[in-house]
Design goal:
eight-stranded mixed beta sheet; about 20% strand; 5 domains
Length: about 900
């Protein structure tokens, strides 16, 4: 059997010699693959505590010793020793933050030198050193200190891989790293160690050992990637007279046409001195920096090149710019993208050539530029076009120009420096639907507060008063509110708090764009719930603030909003009867709101935009918001135990509320409030003139003087409006007076029927099922056609100021009761008798009937009775009888049992019924 196997084996291998030869070849091959000549040989060991000189390391012959210790924290510096000699250490004062290096000529084995690279700040100097300075086969020894990765970009890491590193890709913030590598060494063959940061700083790495040179198989590493075309290598395209311009350039200049191309399809073009030098298929025109260099002394093109700074780092471009003579002129056009790997050093070099915009170049932006080395100031031949928010292609640019041989820069930028708001662009890419805010024409607008222009208000308390924004669901309206707030002069953005429903996370990021604080609120289905939570949140965030300004949803603030609040704040602090300052006037319609300097005291709770006292919140609202404030503000908040609390409002509103739609039962009321033209102040600085008269007692005195100085309006004043049912009339006021008053009748304190009818004549809409807003003790004030008008109801405490003789204010008549009785009828007849039954009176009475259809039957009977009286003298006795009945029933007392003053014959007292 063995013999058979032997014969079979020899038959195939011929003889033992062939077998031995094959075996030796196989063994030799594997030995070669694992030999030191292929992989290099090294030994590494940890350092054990010792008092001996750690730099002294014993190594076999033909090997080189090393000792490396990385830094630890910021006070323990790195040490690098080579061949038993210390080259980098704190003692030598050459150890610094970043990467500390020792460099050895791989061929002569001599030390080239040491150098540190602060890659915490920048890495272009390290890239350049590794790429262009060090010769082939150079051995590098690196030790990190402090922090080395903050600006260690991937390009730089890739270059360290060309020196054999593999772990460098895993290095992170404050990790420690040591490495021995060689230029051209395959990645992964370097001696390297990495220690991760688990606390503030990673622990030190300390190693010593021996290594061979070369350290393994070495491959040549090209130092220059970009081909610079010059002389005969430059291809000339078509000849273009004046580079496409109509006129010939002056003798001291040359013609230029630059075109950035369109998207990534239409290639860029550069024409210089009437020759096309860069275009599709011509001189490597393409992605990145397309550059033509002109020698003004020789008056010819010197260099043409394309630097693809999308794919490669910008080291070649930087060196190219540095080496150009001072007089040379560069023409640069960016196409597709040139920003991804364009280093900060390259941008700085272009600044030196006169660029004012290169710092803003980002992904897919296009840019053209003509500059000259050492130019004084900024070049006038530069423009940038930004990519769209979703990285869409920017608009193309082109330039036709005559460029002087000696360029003159400007000390200031020729145009406002283009600015790119990357944070805003990122937001717009992430969230859709922000139409104007993310429009390409506005997306790079700077968001910053406006400086204070009122020097006398510097340091005013208003600028440390918190402003709380309570956004709704309309995101575009939220942006509008933010923008009108940031435009307030002197605003401190850190005092603005946005309280947003947790469903709308984007409002948090939007607030950060404006520099505002923000807080999340638990989710709610109703805006009123959001508002109540925001009010509580505001006082939690700003517990020491005496006042807080609240801004409701969908508001636009007037330019002087803060200035208005600042002027009003002192009286709010002084008068305990004032609850708040409101920036919105319910009655501020286009025809009834004209005086921007005028303020009123009113009984309404503040609305939309208001400044609230802390003591009011603490005493009346905290823990009670569900009871007092669970409606929209225009529906009325009812705070208990406040009998005489009032609010200051402006005649002309300082906030504008965008038209509001609702499907609730309040739709008609909301339309009345928000769907008619309103007046909002647009001036930046309006001085308020009656602030000192807004105290409780001072205001009463001011109102009394106002009404005494007012000219009462007669019945005839309203005839045309009432006759034609006009909602607004251009009145001819009877006298050139500043103040006018109207005294109108009421059935009771809650009856505003007559007021509703009369105010329509001035363009003031009062909903017929709602109590009028803006009242102060039954007094309603507004401005119209430059005049101040005061409407005084019969139940107002000011009604006694009504003139006794000769003047009666227009109204549609009303009755004291819904059911007519003998006493009431007699009183009405008595009044009719005094006033005389005229056609005008009848018209006013019919006006009342039109507006009270549910009482038409009663009014018709009363009207017939009065008409019959004046047509039939037989009723005279009945009238006298009715008067006696009135006296018997207590005509000497008013409806509340109070004694009435007897009015002179032919005049109307405050309790008379009929035309007041």
């Amino acid at each position: 059997m063995l013999r058979y196997l032997r014969r079979l084996f020899l038959r195939h291998l011929v003889n033992y010699k062939l077998l031995l030869l094959c075996s030796l070849v196989v063994v030799g091959f594997f030995y070669f693959l694992n030999s030191d000549s292929v992989h290099g040989k090294h030994q590494v060991w940890d350092i054990i505590n010792t008092t001996a000189n750690k730099c002294i390391v014993s190594c076999p012959r033909n090997q080189f010793s090393f000792y490396i210790k990385s830094g630890e924290g910021i006070k323990s510096f790195p040490i690098i020793c080579f061949n038993n000699k210390e080259y980098v250490s704190a003692k030598l004062k050459n150890a610094h933050r970043g990467l500390n290096g020792l460099f050895i000529n791989g061929k002569t084995k001599a030390v080239i030198g040491t150098r540190y690279f602060d890659t915490y700040n920048e890495d272009y100097s390290l890239i350049r050193y590794l790429k262009r300075t060090l010769p082939d086969e150079t051995v590098v020894i690196f030790a990190s200190h402090d922090e080395m990765t903050s600006n260690l970009r991937q390009d730089c890491r890739n270059w360290l891989r060309k020196y054999g590193s593999n772990l460098i890709d895993k290095a992170n913030f404050r990790d420690n790293f040591i490495m021995i590598g060689q230029r051209g060494l395959k990645s992964g063959n370097a001696i390297e160690f990495l220690k991760s940061n688990k606390r503030n700083f990673a622990g030190a790495i300390e190693k010593s050992g021996c290594f061979d040179m070369p350290m393994g198989p070495i491959q040549p590493v090209p130092s220059v990637v970009t081909e610079i075309l010059t002389g005969g290598k430059i291809l000339h395209g078509e000849s273009i007279a004046n580079c496409g311009m109509e006129n010939v350039c002056p003798d001291d200049s040359f013609s230029v046409h630059l075109y950035t191309g369109k998207e990534n399809l239409d290639y860029p073009k550069i024409c210089a001195d009437e020759r096309l030098l860069m275009a599709k298929g011509l001189n490597h025109a393409g992605r990145g920096m397309n550059i033509v260099v002109y020698d003004p002394q020789a008056r010819k093109v010197k260099y043409v090149a394309n630097f693809d700074t999308y794919k490669e780092d910008s080291t070649d471009f930087e060196i190219f710019l540095e080496e150009l003579p001072t007089s040379f002129i560069i023409m640069v056009v960016v196409w597709d993208d040139a920003a991804i790997k364009l280093g900060q050093n390259a941008r700085q070099l272009l600044n030196d050539y006169g660029s004012s915009m290169i710092q803003n170049l980002k992904f897919r932006d296009v840019w053209y530029f003509i500059g000259q080395k050492k130019i004084e100031g900024f070049s006038t031949f530069e423009q940038i076009s930004y990519a769209k928010p979703d990285s869409g292609w920017p608009s193309s640019l082109q330039l036709f120009a005559c460029v002087p041989f000696k360029m003159q820069g400007t000390k200031v930028r020729p145009d406002p420096m283009a600015y790119r708001n990357d944070q805003r662009r990122e937001f717009c890419t992430k969230y859709e639907g922000y139409v104007d805010f993310c429009d390409i024409g506005h997306i790079d607008d700077i968001i910053k507060p406006v400086s204070l222009v009122y020097s006398n208000f510097k340091g005013h308390k208003i600028f440390s008063t918190p402003i709380v924004i309570i956004p709704g669901i309309n995101h575009n309206a939220v942006v509008n509110t933010f923008q009108t707030i940031i435009m307030q002069c002197g605003l401190n953005p850190k005092m603005v708090l946005v309280c947003w429903d947790e469903k709308f996370q984007e409002y948090s990021e939007l607030a950060e764009l404006f520099g505002f604080q923000n807080r999340s609120l638990t989710s709610s289905t109703k805006y009123t719930d959001v508002m109540m939570k925001a009010i509580d949140m505001a006082w939690n965030v700003f517990p020491d603030s005496d006042h807080i300004i609240f801004i409701e949803e969908e508001l636009l603030l007037s330019p002087d909003f803060l200035f208005f609040m600042a002027q009003s704040m002192p009286i709010l602090e002084q008068d305990s009867s004032l609850l708040a300052i409101s920036a919105w006037n319910y009655n501020g319609y286009e025809a009834t709101s004209e005086n921007s300097s005028l303020l009123y005291r009113v009984e309404d709770f503040p609305s939309l935009g208001f400044m609230l006292k802390k003591e009011v919140y603490k005493k009346y609202m905290q823990g009670k918001l569900d009871a007092c404030c669970n409606k929209r503000i225009w529906d009325g908040w009812h705070i208990q135990n406040i009998s005489d609390g009032e609010v200051i409002i402006p005649d002309v509103s300082r906030v504008y509320r965008q038209p509001f739609l609702t499907a609730t039962n309040d739709e008609d009321y909301v339309k009345t409030l928000f769907h008619q033209p309103r007046t909002t102040n647009l001036e930046q600085k309006v001085k308020l003139f009656n602030v000192n008269s807004l105290g409780k007692n001072e205001y009463e005195m001011a109102i009394l003087k106002l009404l005494r100085d007012s000219e009462p309006l007669t019945d005839a004043f309203f005839l045309e409006c009432l006759k034609n049912s006009v909602t607004q009339t251009r009145f001819q006021f009877p006298k050139q007076r500043q103040y006018y008053s109207v005294y109108y009748a009421q059935e009771n304190a809650a009856d505003f029927t007559v007021l509703t009818i009369l105010t329509k004549c001035f363009g003031l809409s009062i909903h017929d099922k709602r109590k009028p807003n803006g009242l102060h003790k039954g007094l309603l004030r507004f401005t119209h056609q430059g005049y101040q008008l005061s409407f005084v109801g019969q139940y107002s405490s000011y009604f006694y100021l009504k003139p006794i003789e000769g003047v009666a204010s227009s109204r549609c008549p009303v009755e004291q009761q819904h059911k007519i009785g003998r006493n009431e009828a007699a009183a009405e007849l008595q009044e009719r008798r005094r006033l005389k039954w005229t056609e005008n009176n009848k018209l006013l009475f019919e006006c009342y009937i039109r507006n009270k259809p549910e009482e038409k039957g009663f009014k018709q009977r009363l009207l017939m009775l009065w008409e019959k009286y004046y047509q039939n003298e037989e009723l005279k006795g009945e009238s006298e009888q009715n008067q006696n009945m009135v006296k018997e029933d207590g005509a000497g007392e008013d409806n509340n049992g109070m004694e009435m003053k007897k009015e002179p014959q032919g005049t109307i007292g405050p309790n008379n019924r009929g035309f007041i």
